[in-house]
Amino acid sequence: MGLMSRWQLPEGARPFDQAVGPFPEEPFLDVWMATLGTGNAVTVASGDTALPLVERDGLVTIAGDAHVTDYHSPLGPAPEDLAGQLIEARGDSAGVVLDSLPEGSARALEKGLEAAGVKPDFAQSEITAVIEVDGDYLSQLSRKQRHEVRRKHRRFVEAEGAPRIHIRHEDRDSITRFLEMHRMAEGDKGDFMTGRREGFFRSLYGSEGWEIAELTTGSTVVASAFGFRDDDAYYLYNSAYDLRYREVSPGIVMLHLLIEHLVESGCRRIDLLKGDEIYKFRMGAERRPLFRISF
Fold first, then answer.
1. Per-residue confidence (pLDDT) for residue 242, from 0 to 100
2. Average confidence score pLDDT of the chain
3. Does pLDDT of 120 surpass 60?
4. Given this model, what pLDDT does residue 67 score?
């Protein structure tokens, strides 16, 4: 019980919350820490339950910056048992901030802290967007949106030829193409892909479960999706497209074909992760709230 050094997590421990992808677990956190992370890494633990933390700039947070880590979750069965260690971890710091938590672990942590005499601030802070497919995907969309998806697909075919989806694993050319398209994007999206973040994506792509889906026409790659797949779901982490094809909606065409491919291969949950962009909900996603606890 108590504080342990970097990522000494209980062997075989799984996230408390369901369907949270790779983000709370050691392989993702190791890549994050090696490429983007700063501060002192510790883990609070009690029995078979643990939570990796980082202390920096006088603040204690869950390991994994919120802008690249879509879900946080304690590992193990009893998040409420971590309350004492979280209070100890605060020490003389400015505070503890636990973000990006699904409701299950957020409520358990809140309960534990209150039982230990601390009343934390508790608020919904963000959402993720999740598509659950039951049967035919397009039939789940509104009539208007179904028509719009088909219209964009037809326009793509008329302008560029038939699109195809290809799944790539550990393919150096694919990750290079994805990064190049991302850097070419306009505004904040293009600025996001710094040299350090490029190293982060390259390291993730070499890890188990990560893959790139490419939208092609003929031999030309038009768009690329960077995602993770496990037994629970597919998690669409990031995407980019060649700006020369923007008039034929390559992002929507790729997402539609990718969802169809995933459903055909047995995946029924497609998580579009953080962000409330309108296209996600037009494509059938529902909101999953995430919570923030601080004290």
1. 97
2. 95
3. yes
4. 94
CATH code for 134-267?
3.40.630.30
What pLDDT, on the 0 to 100 scale, is given for residue 3?
Answer: 42
Token pair of 286 as six digits: 């529902």
Instruction: Give the mean pLDDT of 228-255.
Output: 97
